[in-house]
Amino acid sequence: MSQVVPETTASIQMDASHPVWKAEEILALYELPFMDLLWRAHETHRQHFDANVIQRSTLLSIKTGGCSEDCGYCAQSARYETSLERERLMPLDDVLTAARAAKEKGASRFCMGAAWKSPKEADLDKVLEMVRGVKALGMEACVTLGMLQAGQAEKLKAAGLDYYNHNLDTAREFYAQVVQSHTHEERLDTLHAAQQAGLNLCAGGIIGMGESRKNRAALLSELACLPKPPESVPINHLVPIPGTPMGELPPLDPFEFIRTIAAARIVMPTSWVRLSAGRMEMSDELQALCFFAGANSIFYGEALLTTGNADVSRDDALFTRLGLKAI
Ligand code: SAM
Ligand code: DTB
Ligand code: SF4
Questions:
Q1: Minimal CA–CA distance to 71: which of 175, 163, 150, 166?
Q2: What superfamily would CATH give domain 23-326?
Q3: By 3-state DSSP, what share of the chain in percent is helix, strand and coil, each rounded to 5?
Q4: What pLDDT score was predicted for residue 2?
């Protein structure tokens, strides 16, 4: 590992003990024989985590569809003709009823997602109430509200928020092929604002959007080289949404997805790596390999934001078959 600080993070205070991974070095990991890569990832995993524990977060879409942005993978963009029905910001009571149900099913974190470019102040005030309500239930709270404006991260922190989710989604070099309505740099600004306010970060990306292996390695490098690596790293497999520009993309080789999990585990050894969107289409065996490669968190519950998720009964059975302890 070299100690060269990439341009994007050079101006930010880096922790001197925080190793820097260049994209080429991560690409070299991807190019290891599969068994060597998995072995190394699994060894790293065991150095920092109990390899038999999986953390569960439950998602709720608190404001659905009608988003101004043009993210090419997203069902919620107002620019594409999808079958999605728009829904306004949910009332507080309904959100807390869903949070209670998630807690009863065993989720330790409740994540609320809104289809906004950025939250308006009046909407943010309502989300702050939701955060306080989820915290009062004794759960960890996470929100994903789009790009944060000055002062908003601090308000979320003061309300007790644990995690802010904001994904880089893909490498800087590929970003313009996925999104034109905002920039990769703007997404990084929000990550920095959340970290500076003292929030834990949940930041990752989507694999299978037609990006190259080099792009995948560059995305992981950007995440690993943040001033502090994200505490939680969701690795989403593209869920192709009919009507979006990515609705008809050919499926990715599943081994490439596993390699991405393994590389994420090696370069962010102390982060929780979440096997995120796309699990419904994955076999139990593929998911087990992802867990072996270092994934130790999932979204748990019947729905993601606008698409389905693996059934809770299927997940519970898989945990039992693999002797995994779910927290
Ligand atoms: N609007 C906010 C934003 O863009 O950050 C929050 C909601 S947005 C839907 C949250 C994340 O969901 C995206 O950054 C992306 O990583 C993921 N996502 C959305 N649609 C997806 C899809 N079809 N397949 C996989 N992941 C998806
Ligand atoms: C994340 O990385 N994945 C979640 C969560 N953070 C907000 C969202 C996945 C969305 C999958 C497509 C959908 O349901 O609309
Ligand atoms: Fe809007 Fe977020 Fe979907 Fe982009 S990913 S269209 S910002 S909801």
A1: 175
A2: Aldolase class I (3.20.20.70)
A3: 40, 15, 45
A4: 41
pLDDT at residue 17, rounded to an integer: 67
Centre of ligand 2 to C-alpha 197, Å, is: 24
Whole-number CA gyration radius for the chain: 18
- What is the distance between the alpha carbons of residues 133 and 102, in angstroms, rounded to a whole number? 14
The H-assigned helical ranges of 55-120 are 92-105
**Is the CB of 112 inside a 6 Å radius of any atom of ligand 1?**
no
Greatest CA separation found in the chain?
A: 52
Q: List, in sequence order, every residue forming a beta bridge with 77; answer none if it has no partner.
A: 67
The contacts of residue 278 (CB under 8 Å, 6+ apart) are: 208, 236, 237, 238, 239, 257
Answer whether 208 contacts ligand 2 (Cβ < 6 A). no
Pick out the chain residues at pLDDT < 70.
Answer: 1-17
Q: What is the DSSP string of 191-206?
A: HHHHHHTT-EEE--EE
Domain extent listing, the chain:
23-326
Neighbours of 303 (CB within 10 A): 13
- Return all residues near 137 (Cβ < 8 A) that are at least 6 apart: 96, 99, 100, 103, 110
Predicted structure pTM score: 0.94
Is residue 170 lining ligand 3, measured as CB closer than 6 Å? no
Asked whether 290 and 17 are in contact (CB, 8 A), the reply is no
